[in-house]
Each structure stands twice: as C-alpha cells, then as structure tokens.
Amino acid sequence: FFVDPADEGKGKGKAVAETPMKKDGEEKDQAKDTEANDLINSTFDVSVTLADQQADPNSPLYSAKTFEELGLHTDLLKGIYDMGFSKPSKIQERALPLLLSSPPTNMIGQSQSGTGKTAAFVLTMLSRVDFNVQKPQALCLAPSRELARQIMSVVVQMGKFTSVQTEYAIKDNLPRDATSISAQIIVGTPGTMTDLIRRKVINVSEVKVFVLDEADNMLDQDGLGDQTLRVKNMLPRTKMQIILFSATFPDHVRKFASKFAPDANKIELQRNELSVEGIRQFYMDCRDEEHKYDILVSLYSLLTIGQSIIFCKHRHTADRISQRMTAEGHKVASLHGAKDASERDTIIDAFRQGKDKVLITTNVIARGIDIMQVNMVVNYDLPLMNERGPGGDDRPDVETYLHRIGRTGRFGRKGISINFVHNQQTWQQMDQIEKALGRKIIRIETDDLDEMEEKMKKALK
Ligand SMILES: Nc1ncnc2c1ncn2[C@@H]1O[C@H](COP(=O)(O)OP(=O)(O)OP(=O)(O)O)[C@@H](O)[C@H]1O
C-alpha cells in the first residue's frame, strides 16, 4: 500500500489509514455488462488517507455500495440512473462519501483512467450547488477545451432533472461583450477562466467548490501550474472545497497538490497499479520513420474495427500523416492545438459520434477523453518529457503514456495499445516505460500481418 511520502515524512500525527479493497468474490450481479462489473467489484487496491485523524476508515460511512446511501437529492439520483449507472465504481464507492460529507473537506483522488472520477466530482458539484442562487458556485478546470466540453456534457446529463445552469470558460465561446455569467457551474480552461474572473464577468463571491481534473497536469509548474494558481488566488479563501483528481500524480507535483488542497482526504494508488488491466500493450519494431508510416497504413483495417487514436509528437506530423492517408483513400481526421476552436469542436464531435474512426492527434487529447468505442491507441511517437515544457529531456513520459493508453479500456472494457519503435533510442525509451509500469509490452512482427491481426483480435476478445 501506498502512503504519500510527504505526509509520512512529516509524521505530524496525521492518521494514515490504509484499507485494502480486496476482490469480493461472493458479490453476484445480474447486470449484463460483466466487464464493467469487474471494475465495480474491484480491480485494484486503494489506500485511503483521511484528513480527520479520529475517523475510522473502516466505518461504513466511508464507503457507499449504492447511490441511495449517499443521501443525494432524488433529482440527482434520477440523473445518475438515467445515465445507466447502477452502482458506484470502486473509486466512487470510496470517494463519494468523503466528497459529500459535511463540512466539506478537500480531496486528492487518484485512480486509473476510465474508472469514474469525472462522475464523482460532477456529482459533488451538482449536490453542493444551491439552485435558487443565480451565481457561480462551482468552478471546474481541465487542460483542454475538448475535456472541458466532455465534463460539461456529464454535468448536463447528470443534472438533467435539476434546474442547474451552466456556462463554459473556454476560448471563443462567449460573446466578447458579455458582462456577467450567472450560471452556477462553470467548466473551462485556466487561461479563459482567469480572464473572465479578472474582468469580473465571473463573480466568484459564492464559489464553494473548485475542481481540477487532470490535477497533476493542471498543477505542473512547467505547464498550467501558474495559471491554475492564479485562478485559485482569486477565489474566496474560506469554505472552499478543493477537489483534485487524476490518474497520475508524479512525485514532483504531490507536495504542491497537498499545499494546494490542504488537509485533504486522499485516495491513492501505486504507480504499478496504474495500468488498466484490460489494455494489452504491444510494440512494433519499425525500420525507420518511413516504415512507421507504412505500418500504420497496413494497420488501417484493424484501426477501424472500433475506433482508434494515433498519438504523434508534433502537430505537423499529425497533419502530414492524415493528409497522406487521406490522399491514399483512407478516412482519417487530425486534431491538435493549432486548429481553431470551432474546427476542433467539429472534429472531436464527429469522432465522438463515430463518423470518423481514426483520429490522429498530439498530447492535446492524451488526457480524459472518454469514448467507449476507442479500442486501439497507437503511439506513433512515444511521449517524451521534453514535450512537457522547457525543462524536459529525452526520457519517456510515463504519466502521459498511461493517460494516452487510457483512452481505450474505459470502464472495464478491453483495449489495445501499440507502440512504434524504430531505433535503439526509441526501443530503450519503451523499455523504460515497460520497467516503470511493471507490465509486459509484447512484440508483434511487422511483416506478418496475419499474426498481427490474430494477436490483436484475440486481445480484444
Ligand atoms: N458507476 C458507474 N457505472 C457505470 N458507468 C460508469 C460509472 N461511473 C462512470 N461510468 C462511465 O465510465 C466511463 C469512464 O468514466 P470517467 O470518464 O469518469 O473516467 P475517469 O476516471 O475520469 O477517466 P480519466 O482518468 O481518463 O479522466 C464514462 O463513460 C462514465 O460514464
């Protein structure tokens, strides 16, 4: 079990209560979706660190097997069931009672990608809002407009039976002369959120919940950290519930996260527990860059069995590959940060609706995007630390790798990831990822398409 070394080291009497969540073999469920049930029944162990030293982490108060137990308003329960959720996932089971308890307590929550973190924080925002007050009460920040839009769709779906009012704080969304937002829940990206608060378009006096999705990314000093801190510093200092969620919390942001969300309840996983069980990882040994392209093209029929996402390092690579493939008669789309806002929305929406089956992109959508039909992720280029910001180097970026492959295998489903390596350096980088995660990455021959197809189809069964 994992204990935050920062907390442990300080040893200031903080209760470190570790409760193993073991597989509950007895639990029988009649629901059809057995894979999702496996996830609900437990596929991983979590450790819970309660901010309240006196609390007994084994108390039933700290675990909810049903949504009813949480004391939610019936309109919210209706929304949850309308989304097809029958009971809380593992992370929700542990996190929701802590998130919803009174007085509100901060939360730092970590669990694998696709395990239901979004639903947990959205439900918290909805249940804390006073629908009679027409002022912003909950703010949520995400690292990309695509993710902000997806989170909003969960807010709207889950809040369908309430009178919640929502607004975006993303680029090019509001008319330039907008003077005030009265919506209760605002979801956006940090730059636009800062701008709107500064210009007093968002009045923050009633804000009582502040959520960071992909929190490690949002707090990283090489990335969005400054902007996120700027937003926090403009919020009221008292009675603010700060909620940080991510699948990953690398060491260098852990301390800052604890400072950012003081006295938080913590739910955490070890790094080697972070790979999602259902995702089979492969690699293909390509001869050179051009061979990578040829292999990708030869994979096309496999890529379109379900849907797939191809990750490249550079925007121009994504564009070039997509142009070449399109010219050769394949239907693919490309998405990256250099495209303008409305184009980005059109592209991700078409992909979400299944109109496009292959999306070629960069790290811009490495995190959070939840599309169930995605059963294959290709790392055309492996993610490296030097893509994070100026301080990075040629080491592989294990966190981003986990987030990228986590676009498949959502909520207990099966998925495949394929890494392209093409020289000694990339092979070593992949080897480091394999070691860091303690999971085998299996070789597939590039010259035997039949074997490749057979292996992949087997992995998806
Ligand atoms: N209790 C539940 N029952 C059934 N489905 C659920 C439940 N909770 C969440 N889901 C579904 O599981 C999928 C993954 O959930 P979600 O997007 O919240 O994962 P996440 O942990 O936020 O992932 P990531 O780390 O990639 O952001 C979503 O499609 C969501 O609707």
UniProtKB/TrEMBL annotation:
<keyword id="KW-0732">Signal</keyword>
<keyword id="KW-0378">Hydrolase</keyword>
<keyword id="KW-0547">Nucleotide-binding</keyword>
<keyword id="KW-0694">RNA-binding</keyword>
<dbReference type="InterPro" id="IPR027417">
    <property type="entry name" value="P-loop_NTPase"/>
</dbReference>
<feature type="domain" description="DEAD-box RNA helicase Q">
    <location>
        <begin position="65"/>
        <end position="93"/>
    </location>
</feature>
<dbReference type="InterPro" id="IPR014014">
    <property type="entry name" value="RNA_helicase_DEAD_Q_motif"/>
</dbReference>
<keyword id="KW-0347">Helicase</keyword>
<keyword id="KW-0067">ATP-binding</keyword>
<feature type="short sequence motif" description="Q motif">
    <location>
        <begin position="65"/>
        <end position="93"/>
    </location>
</feature>
<feature type="domain" description="Helicase C-terminal">
    <location>
        <begin position="278"/>
        <end position="457"/>
    </location>
</feature>
<feature type="region of interest" description="Disordered">
    <location>
        <begin position="8"/>
        <end position="32"/>
    </location>
</feature>
<dbReference type="GO" id="GO:0003723">
    <property type="term" value="F:RNA binding"/>
</dbReference>
<dbReference type="Pfam" id="PF00270">
    <property type="entry name" value="DEAD"/>
</dbReference>
<dbReference type="GO" id="GO:0016787">
    <property type="term" value="F:hydrolase activity"/>
</dbReference>
<dbReference type="GO" id="GO:0005524">
    <property type="term" value="F:ATP binding"/>
</dbReference>
<dbReference type="InterPro" id="IPR001650">
    <property type="entry name" value="Helicase_C-like"/>
</dbReference>
<dbReference type="GO" id="GO:0003724">
    <property type="term" value="F:RNA helicase activity"/>
</dbReference>
<dbReference type="InterPro" id="IPR014001">
    <property type="entry name" value="Helicase_ATP-bd"/>
</dbReference>
<protein>
    <recommendedName>
        <fullName>RNA helicase</fullName>
        <ecNumber>3.6.4.13</ecNumber>
    </recommendedName>
</protein>
<dbReference type="InterPro" id="IPR000629">
    <property type="entry name" value="RNA-helicase_DEAD-box_CS"/>
</dbReference>
<feature type="compositionally biased region" description="Basic and acidic residues">
    <location>
        <begin position="20"/>
        <end position="32"/>
    </location>
</feature>
<dbReference type="InterPro" id="IPR011545">
    <property type="entry name" value="DEAD/DEAH_box_helicase_dom"/>
</dbReference>
<feature type="domain" description="Helicase ATP-binding">
    <location>
        <begin position="98"/>
        <end position="267"/>
    </location>
</feature>
<dbReference type="Pfam" id="PF00271">
    <property type="entry name" value="Helicase_C"/>
</dbReference>
<comment type="similarity">
    <text>Belongs to the DEAD box helicase family.</text>
</comment>
